[in-house]
From TrEMBL:
SUPFAM superfamilies: Methylated DNA-protein cysteine methyltransferase, C-terminal domain (SSF46767). This is DNA-binding protein. Residues 10-68 form the Methylated-DNA-[protein]-cysteine S-methyltransferase DNA binding domain. CDD domains: ATase. Pfam families: DNA_binding_1 (PF01035). The keyword Phosphoprotein does not apply.
């Protein structure tokens, strides 16, 4: 069992990835797991649900671009402030929330960034 101020190593790594995602960009739960070469979308989702409040949680998303249920309005405010590409719902959607435009918003972790291998300090 872990102390409250001590996170499991995998959680540390997932949260470190969330902190690396640039403003206005997103990675899916599966993208994060693939980038770390460990776990899967469900494990990443669990880490984000338990520990993600202190990192830019809105940048780790579902692959279909739907906003996180129960946190749609908070996430949408972040996306709009950061300029994250969105797909507004059509008239037939009945006022539903927009989705993330995944083709334009998805970040591949490129650049000089490498996956974290040690816990954050």
């Amino acid at each position: 069992m872990h102390r409250m101020d001590e996170l499991p190593e995998y959680a540390e790594r997932v949260l470190a990835v969330a902190e690396l995602i640039p403003a206005g960009r997103v990675m899916t739960y599966g993208d994060v797991a693939e980038w770390l070469d460990e776990g899967g979308p469900r494990q990443v989702g669990r880490v984000m649900a338990l520990y993600g409040g202190a990192v830019p949680w809105w940048r780790v998303v579902r692959a279909d671009g739907l906003l996180l249920p129960g946190h749609e309005r908070d996430a949408l405010a972040h996306y709009r402030a950061e300029g994250t590409p969105l797909r507004e719902p059509g008239r037939a959607a009945g006022g539903r929330m927009p989705r993330i435009a995944m083709a334009r918003a998805r970040w591949d972790g490129g650049g000089d960034v490498t996956p974290p291998t040690t816990p954050r300090t």
